[in-house]
Amino acid sequence: MGLQSFERRLERLVEGTFSKAFRSGLQPVEIARKLIRELEAGRTLGVRGPVVPNHFAVALSSSDAERFESFVDVLERELAEEAREHARGESYHFVGPVTVELLVDDGLRRGDLQIEARIVEGGRVGALVLPDGRRLPLAEEPALIGRLPGCRVPVDDPKVSRRHAEVRPDPDGYVLRDLGSLNGTTVNGVTVKEQLLDDGDEIGVGSAIIRFEAS
User: Fold this and answer.
1) Phi, psi at residue 92, to the nearest 5°?
2) Which pLDDT score is estimated for 91?
């Protein structure tokens, strides 16, 4: 099901002349399938559970790389998202940001594919997935959620306070803290004042749902 979702996302994002690249040769879903296999093969046991690779170097033949050249950024981004979704479904953990890099190997023939998957530590990592699908990487400064235009996560909803809540770094990851909002803040439907966030937690402010990703 995950790979079907991957294909549908690409179909929406890659249109017009870009779509011609899918008619023959190496298919993006083949890259995604092998990437997931390499992710599984690199699994190891960590303190909080299974840890999997988060950096993938994907080597393609020059002819295949040329076909994907026009939308390489989209393909790299969607492959990284596929790795995150698979890890989330299996309760795997990353120790750094998930990155995918498409490279050219002149020694490969058309249709050949090699992937090097590595675990690369990157310190505390996290992101907020906004209601419109955009991913907002979290850093060392707090991310303010509220109705003020200057908020890192602005939410245009009369039920949301001007400075409603914030997500701030913590030694164990990221913590959500309500800032005394009038209508409260929820995590997975439960009202909270402060809570350490887990991968996949859904933050509710007003009518907006914001998903936290620990990657």
Assistant:
1) -85, 165
2) 86
